[in-house]
Specification:
The chain has helices at 33-40, 83-95, 132-136; strands spanning 25-28, 43-49, 68-77, 109-121. It has 140 residues and is of the alpha+beta class.
Length: 140
Amino acid sequence: MEGGSTLNVVSFSDGLPGKGAGIPYFYLTALDPTAANAFKDQRSSFTLSEYPIGTCGKTDPENPTCAKITLTGKLKLVDGSSKEAEFARSALFAKHREMEDWPKNHNFQIFKLEIGDIFLINWFGGPKPLTVDQYLQWNM
């Protein structure tokens, strides 16, 4: 859809298992619309739901009591020879082992979402205020 938004399912990692840092990284190819569109317009959003981890019980995933967060910002290509790319590659391959074997001639590259805004909903009554700094400094 030329010039319009595109929805897609992508794998991500924000760090090694159990050590997430909050910045989502992706391993993408320009053969896929997610990366192809990012080269033209970096504006992007990424949504995660609590539902897949099983803590919503039988509640419908759209029910506000089943938390969801949308990170919006810019999907940026990471310099492939940087320390950040090395970190992201390790994090991605630790969680998605098959990525290492994806076709080299597809030119997969590391991207990250540079977060600009956050939409969090975990109960009725609308979104909860959450700054990027609060999100990145959160500890369990």
